[in-house]
UniProtKB/TrEMBL annotation:
The lineage of its organism: Bacteria, Pseudomonadati, Pseudomonadota, Alphaproteobacteria, Rhodobacterales. One of its GO terms (biological process) is sulfur compound metabolic process. One of its GO terms (molecular function) is molybdopterin cofactor binding. SUPFAM superfamilies: E set domains (SSF81296), Oxidoreductase molybdopterin-binding domain (SSF56524). This is Sulfur dehydrogenase subunit SoxC. Residues 285-403 form the Moybdenum cofactor oxidoreductase dimerisation domain.
Amino acid sequence: MSDDSDKGPSRRGFLGAMAAGGALAAGGARAASDPLITEVQPWNQLLGEGVDETPYGLPIRFESDVVRRDVPWLTADPISSVNFTPIHALEGTITPQGCAFERHHAGAIELAKPDYRLMINGLVDRQMVFTYADLERFPRETHVYFMECAANSGMEWAGAQLNGCQFTQGMIHNMEYVGVPVRLLLEEAGVKPEGKWVLAEGADAAGMTRSIPLEKMLDDCLVAFKANGEALRKEHGYPARLVVPGWEGNMWVKWLRRLEVGDEPWEQREETSKYTDVMADGSARKWTWVMDAKSVITSPSPQAPITHGKGPLVITGLAWSGRGTIRRVDVTTDGGITWHEARLSGPSFSKALHRFHFDVDWDGSEMILQSRAIDDTGYVQPTKDQLRAFRGENSIYHNNGIQTWLVMPDGRVENVEIS
């Protein structure tokens, strides 16, 4: 049950303290005599760069730490590996393409638009091949969706492992995609009555292939060629990729080259030996495509400690569900003894990231931070113990258990688990 009686520090009190000219706390609002505001600084006196200094705008050098990172020991080779979105350093919900995580099985390839082809074959009335220019002539749609790797948080099944929000939850991004509904392409080819499944195949050396139910393809899947207003990046499948909203990222086939309609699933490597959930008894559960409701506090977190000392503190994070929108996010500062309803900020799109905030007046004492998401189906994000009671500890994929951060009196944060 949510307890929203603790509303945190008031805006009136915060602004009043600032107006008084005194610091709220160590590292808080500065006195009016601060030379950085009372004295002329170099940037007030010198001309800046011209408008054509960087034809494609780049982040300022002061933000050079906000980058994707990998874990070198996680995979044998970076060609078939993953890096992580710096979600601890971002705000809002849209992930810049340059920060959005990558997962490759044979490296990111260069495929030019003139060389791009998309075949539709199998149980169709007309086998067809589309060029990139052909795709641009179809009616297009724009949607904001999250994409989460099924292995996000996978290393945490047996306990707290990596000390960073980026590394525990960063196999996710949220972008505005523009593309052609797969439905229109399949209608052009004409699906035969016995068609029930679609095989999506990529053009990279991995030969990535996934079986997807025809019903899903006709519902909301896209062949996307733009993200966040520009062309896809090479590492995200340029010039065109498949978008499978709410379902595991491995199904979002990049460099999409073929859609084959069939009457049964193909049982490919990525849906048999991989991307299945190994249960406690050793059996493997297939076809667990949907990414269930999940959330994480991104700040404070191990890579975003509290540096300003006691006083007003903004606790913020992200929540998402592959089944729809997020209805509510609860936050606890005492490890689940009491829960408080957070404030959802910004737009709430279906199958997209939601930003939440919870404001507190931190007294410098230890906190055990957690968040739990509730989606519009009524599903409540489980604890890790609840998840393990059903699934055991053999899994790699679909870990949506509640994440716990321990905030220490000096502001440092660690990845922990509580029982």
